[in-house]
Amino acid sequence: MRGESLMFVEGPGGEVGSLLFPPDRMLSLTSCTGDVVYEEGRDYASEPASGALRRLEGSRIPLTTREELSRLTAAEDDAFHRRQVAATYGHAAGLWTGPVPSISAGQLARTHDRLQRSKPLTISMTGDSISEGYNASGFIGVAPHQPAYGTLVAAGLEHMYGSPVAFHNVAVAGWTADDGRADAARVAGGKPDLVIVAYGMNDACYADAAAFGANIAAIVNEIRGSSPEAEFVLVSPMLPSPACDFVVMDRFPAYRDALASLSGQGVVLADMTTLWLKLLERKSAHDLSGNGLNHPNDFGHRLYAQTILALLAR
Question: Domains plus CATH for the chain?
Fold first, then answer.
């Protein structure tokens, strides 16, 4: 595991952070910016049996008070990022019991064929602030300058296959699937081979699953009208933190199910919703968040990228 994020928040259990897997060896614990290296025995103690990291008295690891947490929530700068730490450690194989991305043979046949033959691939992405890149360290211009998930996907495909990938990110902060539907003709104008469609976080303020699904289906159909060979990855969103009280939380699994019903030949689901539910069995929502509200941090953006790449890589 490389760079798994944790955040220590004042309160019951706040001195203890939970790793996703029990470590058999700690390799490093650093600030998320990478400029501070924390020392085991001085700053923290590792509890391998439980996978807990305990913050020690006098530790240099930030302990965020509830007042600070409230003030930092929804920050678009690096304030939340700088309160988190990154753990790199070894662990036993076979511990993951959560969802593993998979698709049926031939479901993205044209995309896979182009990649296998190292042919050029054009990817367009339509979505909201998560897809635009919010709270990835590269997006906000701070160390370690990690790109957002869309750029990671494009770079990953180029690295694995040698295909030249043209990536067009037309996501806009605050947009919903209604906006994506209105913008579908512009996306189609780019003649994409693959389209990543990633909405839902803002839709959950007002739209039921039927309306959301209808908008996503309309986006797919509009783009297919002028680019019939285009294939699609539909992304169901991460879960927001409990502080995001202006959304209806029950809509997220319903949105996932609506997207799953649209899957078929040339259309696949990247299910971040179920993944997030599994992560939250071990992790705090603050461990995974870039703003304490509704954006992923660097670790979360990598999870988005890995999930999508698992669908695209043979």
Answer: 4-91 (no CATH), 109-312 (3.40.50.1110)
